[in-house]
Amino acid sequence: MILSRSADYGLRALMFLAQREDPSPAPLDQIAQAQAVPPALLSKILQTLVKAKILRSQKGYGGGVTLIADPAQHSNTVN
């Protein structure tokens, strides 16, 4: 399957968030740096995921994004 660059970056950001141990919001720059994604493009992708109610965003000091659903409760194995 071939994914668009935006889809690839979005999935990488979601996987990063799902694997984090820290429950606090992850800042955009932290996700962008960890996944080697341009911050401006990642910002647009994350906005789309927030509108789709996959992510929750928090503005201000200590802000960032978190997954709305707990990945531990949705950890089905893919065969």
Taken from the alpha-carbon principal axes, the silhouette is globular
Strand count, sense and closure of the main sheet? 2 strands, antiparallel
Query: N-to-C terminal Cα separation, in Å?
Result: 16 Å
Physical arrangement of strands within the biggest beta sheet: 1-2
Q: Quickly count the helices.
A: 3
Mean pLDDT: 89
Our estimate of the beta-strand percent is 5-15%
Structural class: mainly alpha
State the share of residues found in helices, binned by percent: 40-55%
Q: SSE order in H/E notation?
A: HHHEE
Task: Point out poorly predicted stretches.
Answer: none
Gyration radius, in Å: 12 Å
Number of strands: 2
List the helices and strands and how they pair.
Elements: H1 5-19, H2 28-35, H3 39-51, E1 55-58, E2 64-67
Antiparallel strand pairs: 1-2
Helix pairs in contact: 1-2, 1-3
Note down, in words, how this protein is organized:
It is a single chain. With 79 residues, the chain is mostly helical. It is built from three helices and two strands. It has helices at residues 5-19, 28-35, 39-51; strands at 55-58, 64-67.
Nutshell version of this structure?
With 79 residues, the protein is mostly helical.
Features of this protein?
single chain; 79 residues; 10% strand
